Amino acid sequence: MTQNPTDTRVAAVVVLAAGGGTRMKSSTSKLLHKVCGQSMLSYAVSAAESLDPEHLVVVVGHAREQVLQHLADIAPEVTTAVQEEQKGTGHAVECGVRDLGDLTGEVVVTYGDVPMLTGETLRGLVDAHRAASAAITVLTAQVPNPTGYGRIIREGDRVSRIVEQKDATPEEAAVTEINSGIYVFDAEVLRHGLANLDTDNAQGELYLTDVITVANREGKLVGAHVIEDLWQTEGVNDRVQLARMNAEMNRRVVEKWMRAGVTVQDPASTWIEQGCDLARDVTILPNTQLQGATSIATGATIGPDTTLRDVEVGEGATIIRTHGELAVVGASATVGPWAQLRPGAQVNSGAQATGFIAVRNATVGSGATIAPLSYIGADVEDGSALQPGAILIDNQTIHVNAQQPGQEAEDNQ
Length: 413
Ligand code: UD1
Ligand code: MG
What we know:
With 413 residues, the protein is of the alpha/beta class.
């Protein structure tokens, strides 16, 4: 019986992340810039991890301290390899596999700056590679404007070469099938190819793409796996592309939540980061940003004009024109308009905190009412009704009964 090919693990995924990213014009490494709340590199690592490879290597170079620190935070289990000098993609992969010994099986190569690429796509690429018994399979795409990409030169189903923009003849440059830069290699074919690279090209670099030329010379089968979703092959090189990528990723995230039963009145002005969780029958009104690990329970209405970061919102709560961070809002509570929930704020079920108020590191008890222009820095007991302009500080519990102005003076007579 033949083994189900998808049961075998790939030997390694090598994520190339050593490049400079100079066009970002940033003191932060390009790979640490965020798309929908997560670094670009974290997407690349998750996609790679979903293949469950025996080795996962990230090749670092530029801004390496930042990148290594970030990797230690988000994925301490990955292996890193250093490419001291950026001599090209072939050299980068060489650095990535250098310490892995003589691998057998498959080596997948991806980039750290292609955040939309999914694990599913990588799995599809590996499956296609195995189904064709190929030596190398290139993830390719048909694009309207191939400028800047390597062009796929085919002979029928086989890929015979990849030609870089700068090395292409006008006929080659007219080809619209491009190299995504993502591949599966048979490990031995890769090793042999890397050992036979040269820098005889317009950029004087060791091109990974030349491994394909070497393999063809030796009669190996190089195939292509064409992907329709062009976004999955797009890298980010500058802030304009970063904004485009954010908008598209956000569009997909918002659409996912709408399909899961969330009403979003204005998808274009609604920003939901990857780490958020929304229940069915939540309603999101325009200009709302949900960030971090924010979670919204069923029936809650958020917005308009609201930003929540790491806020937990209970069933049926209403949050209007509010800025909240590290806070908890109970079921059926009302917060805002014009409320600030600072870290540690907790507004319990059925409470109301409306009209130019701030709550910081304090609990507003169930059913309590915070009137406009109040600052709540100490706990408020269940059912209390504070008068407008209440300022509670010093972290003590203050119980204020509902009073009409002037009532206290009468009582004292
Ligand atoms: C590369 C491909 C091209 C493909 C394109 C897709 C080669 C020779 N060309 O071109 O066919 O269409 O990607 O985007 O491979 N990197 C390193 N170390 C290096 C050089 C690059 O880690 O020495 C990393 C970069 O950080 C980046 C990736 O490899 O993530 C691609 O490098 P880049 O210089 O952008 O390659 P391209 O010229 O765009
Ligand atoms: Mg590039």
